[in-house]
Structures are given as structure tokens and as C-alpha cells.
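I am writing to request your help with a piece of structural work I have in hand. Thank you for your consideration; the sequence and its C-alpha cells are set out here:
=====
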Amino acid sequence: MTFAGLLTSSCGNGEPETRTDFIIKNSSSFDIELEVFNAWLPNLRLKDTLIKLAINSEFRYYYNVDGENASYFLPFGYPDSAYIVFSDTQRIIYRRDDLNPRNILDINSYEGGKVANSYFIYTYYISDEDYENALAIK
């Protein structure tokens, strides 16, 4: 199952555009819910966003920005925080500026980069290791 969204900030002024795709893949053994607070996904008319991902599914969205090779480096825009919930039993909480090395809100936690001129793809994998690091929901 794949979900896709489009985000664009292009003004259509004839300047070259760069596309940046973000992919969130559920590679874990659990159904998950990803809740992102204050996400910037305007073309989807979303602010606080709940994304349900079955095992082995993904959510994909992209940004178009003016400028050649001007990659977009802010997953989900500039959200406050995000929760990853595993089968309604375990949860990881990420905040925009926390130091967690697997922060879904930090581009450095994603794999990928430039794949062609003015085209970038970044993928975040949710894994069983994330489940093991999550805390029980009380």
C-alpha cells in the first residue's frame, strides 16, 4: 500500500525546479501509526497528520522548490513533534530538535540523496529495532 502527497512552493516563474521525494517505509513486523504535529503538507490540507502504515507499506510525498539542485531538507515541513505508535502498544516520541539519532523529523536520519539533476529521494525506514526502543503506552 502506498500513499502519495504533493507539496509545492514553486512560483512558476520559469526558474528551474528541484523535486525532493520523502518516503516513509514500514519495514517493521507491526502495523504503525505515524502522527506528525504541525506538519506542512498544504496541498493535502493537513496540519496535524495521522498516517497509518501496514507492515511493508510506505507513505510518499514530495516538494518542488525553485532553483536547480535546491533540495528540500525539512521532512514534513517544520513540525513540532511526531509519534510512531506500534500496534497501539509501544510508542516513540520525536521532537524537532532532540538528539535522537533516528529522529524521523531530521533529514540526517534518512537514507538517500541526489539521484539525478534537480531530483533527490530520501527514505526513512521504520524497523523492529525502533519497536524495541519504544516505550509501552500507559
